[in-house]
Fold:
Amino acid sequence: MKVISFRSIRTRIVTATIVLIVPIVVAVVLSWAKNESDVYREQKRQEAQTLAVALANAWTNELVDQNWSQIRLGLNLLLKRNPEFIYILISDARLSNQIVAAVPNDFQGQYFPDIVSVADTKSALKVYNSTRLVETFLLRNLEFPNGKLRGRRGEQIIEVAADMRNDAGEKIGTLRIGISLRQVNRAVRNAVHKALLVGAIGLSCGLVGAYILARQLTHPLQRLQISATKIAAGDLHHRAEIHLSDEIGALAQAFNEMSTALQASFSRLQKTLESFERFVPEKFLAVIASDGIENIQVGVAATRLITILFADIRGYTSMSEQMTPLETFALLNDYLARMGQVINDAGGFIDKYIGDAIMALFDNETTGSALLAALAMQEALQVFNEEQFMKGQPTLNIGIGIHRGEVVMGTIGFTSRIEPTVIGDAVNVAARVERLTRKYNCAVLVTESVVMALEHPEAFTLRLVDESVKVKGKNEPVGIYELIDVYATNLGLTQTPP
Structure:
């Protein structure tokens, strides 16, 4: 699920935005923090240098007169009023740079105090006609006043040193002030926090903007996806309702044009399929084209136990000779249409037309549908003949033969011309039985296999015509029956047998 989610355009846009914004925000925050730190530190340096020079000048006369007590008093007051000051030391160059005044006062009398490194002390004592400023670290804790921690060991400080000269310009001492960087670090932290806050706001705004942009881009695409799914499910009338003037709008328009073309193509294909089914019945296609009509091949075959009905017009040849071809054509079409509808209603399907003859198949497990179809054909023919008589046109008389047996349903021909067909001895027997209707002067004849397969034989009136008749082309004799009447209505049966 995570992989799929990451593949979405919305996620990728937001991720790309984060990848772009985060480095920018980090760079801005670091640059801002460094700039603020440099500004605060430089400001603190300048203040420390200015203060050191001012104090050195102020206490020079006191140092010349060796009024050390006055200097010590001033140092105490200064340190009490300025919490940023960690220590103040004044060394007398005339006494080999001995510290003559110091706060805290435990450094008085020393030469190299242990609060900073010896190298820092030596560098500070060499200052002449200038100031020296260095960032260093405390080497031990400092208390001022006693018992109150002024500076911690390892704490970062600025030490500024200024020389003290008499009126003759001779250096007589050195002033050293240690100033804490806590306030500077605090200001830098505040600046960093502000920068982080601004960066977070910028990042949030960027993410929201990226999400909105991604949503505006992906929402119509998702709608297109839904539309494609509906069309794939068969809703070819569906159109994508996206009205934009950008590339996505152009894509939606092209999509709708494709849907329109697809609908037209599918409509033509559907009509072609319906037309094809008029030539090859749907039930036949289920056998020879189970994988679709586009995959029909020569030689596909399946064995079926089926009921075959043959119907033929008696005296058709002589009758057609007395009519024009167009009249014969119209008469035949009208007759075949009525018979075909009756056969369909009874659950059968027409396999083929052989001139004026009809070959119909019934794949029910019982043969009742075929018998009902035969009776209904007789009734439809009676109505047809009445209409023909009223028009002054010739009437028709037909014979129907029905047989049940095993056949092979399949395709024959070659790659350029394929035809579905039914082959088997049962087909020949059905055709021969139909011809026997003339001999026995019966409208409908059925074989014994048909009678034996009836689920409700009592629903039909059957008369044994010949229990052992030799059908042309078949060695074994068969029994044939005449279908006379039906009383299915009295038994509550419909035209589709139980």
